[in-house]
Amino acid sequence: MAENKAEKxxxxxxxxxxxxxTSLSLEDIKPxxxxxxxxxxxxxxxxDSLDAVEIVVLLQRNFGLEVKEMSEGKKIFYSVDTxxxxxxxxxxx
Amino acid sequence: xxxxxxxxxxGAICAAGKNVEEIKSAFAxxxxxxxxxxxxxxxxxxxxxxVKAFSCPPxxxxxxxxxxxxxxEALREAGLPQGLRxxxxxxxxxxxxxxxxxxxxxxxxxxxxxxxxxxxxxxxxQGNIAEAFARKxxxxxxxxxxxxxxxxGADALxxxxxxxxxxxxxxxxxxxxxxxxxxxxxxxxxxxxxxRQPCRPFDRDRNGLNLGEGAGxxxxxxxxxxxxxxxxxxxxxxxxxxxxxxxxxxxxxxxGSGLEMAVRSALAQAGVQEAEIAFINAxxxxxxxxxxxxGRFFARMFGPDVRFISTKGFTGHALGAAGALEAxxxxxxxxxxxxxxxxxxxxxxxxxxxxxxxxxxxxxxxYALSTSLAFGGNNAAVIIEQKL
Amino acid sequence: MNINGIGIxxxxxxxxxxxxxxxxxxxxxxILASRVNNDILKDKIFSHEARRSGRFDRLAVLAALDAxxxxxxxxxxxxxxxxxxxxxxxxxxxxxxxxxxDILSFKESDVSPILFSHxxxxxxxxxxxxxxxxxxxxxxxxxxxxxxxxxLTLAQAWLEQKRxxxxxxxxVDEHSxxxxxxxxxxxxxxxxxxxxxxxxxxxxxxxxxSQAQPPASPYAEETEPLQSAFSCAAAIILKMRQET
Lengths: 93, 388, 244
Known about the structure:
- The complex is a heterotrimer.
- By secondary structure, chain A is mostly helical.
- Chain A has helices spanning 2-23, 49-63, 70-76, 80-90.
- By secondary structure, chain B is α/β, with parallel strands linked by helices.
């Protein structure tokens, strides 16, 4: 089970990074350049409020997940790691 | 001294009423109704402020029909029921929706077959709102459609003021118009700024805007020209200012410095001090960011006792029409001697530190300010004056 | 009103020199006729928050910043005293239709807010202002014809009324097969792609290319804004050739 979870998370992280690069037009960055624990907003990757709402849509479109409260979003949107964990826990399978 | 510019007529249509009298009555009674859209089917649950029982003639955009309805009222009040033929007239109107071919069924047809019906294309190519007005009213020009997002209606008044003071024309049809359209409805939802409840401008628990629609039309005129025609209006557009945030596409500059530059520029043009402003009709969309930046700026520049309201609780956010409608509401406040409650507000936001007026309030004074903040970072300020 | 700086982006490239070469080679009629090559729109300025900008935005930004640089104005000193007026016939319609694609392809709640915010006509000027630091009045105006002439007239009024010392005034439009279809019954010159900006003022600045005299416009009555702005620039560039 644990191995299965680790594999699934790795898969989600890979897909997320690809989606972030295309949806947010991160043209100079390759998906594999984004570190799993890199801070997405402000410092780190330097994303902003418009990127945040795009990520909300990205989660809805690709993983069927709704983030209704942006206050809850802050913790989830911290890094690719936290996003992937949230998707893993909440995704409708 | 530049030529004084008088408001010789006003016409307004929005969810609060289909003419100025109806709107005044809704304002006085504190009536509002935000409801699910009926103009298009949708699975989204954001209420809107529609103009009800308004029939749009076939072949023209709803936005344009709304603008014509408001213009009709404004021209009658200005004493020009026959229109502007023979006058040195111009037209400047703001919009957002009318500048785009936002027609989903037409676009689907085009994508599927590589061709599509000509009707919507003609409506679009004939629908540039200033060009359509210029044709209908035989306006020789200047003519411009302002597409500055949410400050368009206010900026259109500024353009008209510049034209009149430069002597390019004697009289201008100025204002803005917009309809509720499915495309921006989805867009504002995706941006996370649309509320699922009736909006609460400046309230601690505000959580977004409601879209609205309508048109606000002002007949602006060189004072000398208006008087020669026998128009006796005592309302004036005395100042306009605009400035850019140079900050972000969708977020206002938190320090409000762009808005401050716009307001200072408008005050300077009108030759007015802050203390002479009787009240402010704020942009007050009820989004977290707008109301915080705007409210804090009011407190800083005008002091803790500043009288301000947002009328968006009555009208929703009518985008390109908003600045013009609110300039009209500002003028009405001075003329009638009262302004409505900031409907939707109940609890002060400590981050803002000041509260809008919670009840219908008597107003005395000669000057009032209307502010507009746009996506894209443009800020606009209009000073309305009532001369004794 | 003096023209102190010019910036141009079109399919032949970016800058006065490439346009001059094209004009000298007799290519005037087709300079605006085709889409601007994507490589021409690449610039390191489109990083960070400008990474999301669309074609229309980029045409505006490059032409506007080139015009500012050409004028020699010190942006840091003058930023509050520069206004912007952009005229366009069709706005960023490629992005507008891409957003419609989203609405047709996904649930209403799953459409892209980035696309939506870039589908409005004034997104381009927002980028020009944010990337240049300009804090004066900013305005985007639209008409299918005479929009540039009207923009120039308004710029003159702003300068005379001392609303700003300088105005960046220009025209931008983008090309697409769908807009070609929509305008297929319009006049032949109704269409093109590019960006042209001028810095106008009552100041001397580093140079004065010419005196602009609106509204007695030398251009055809019913000309699309980009065409008008380009004709104005071309006339100045050709005059430069005669003088040298």
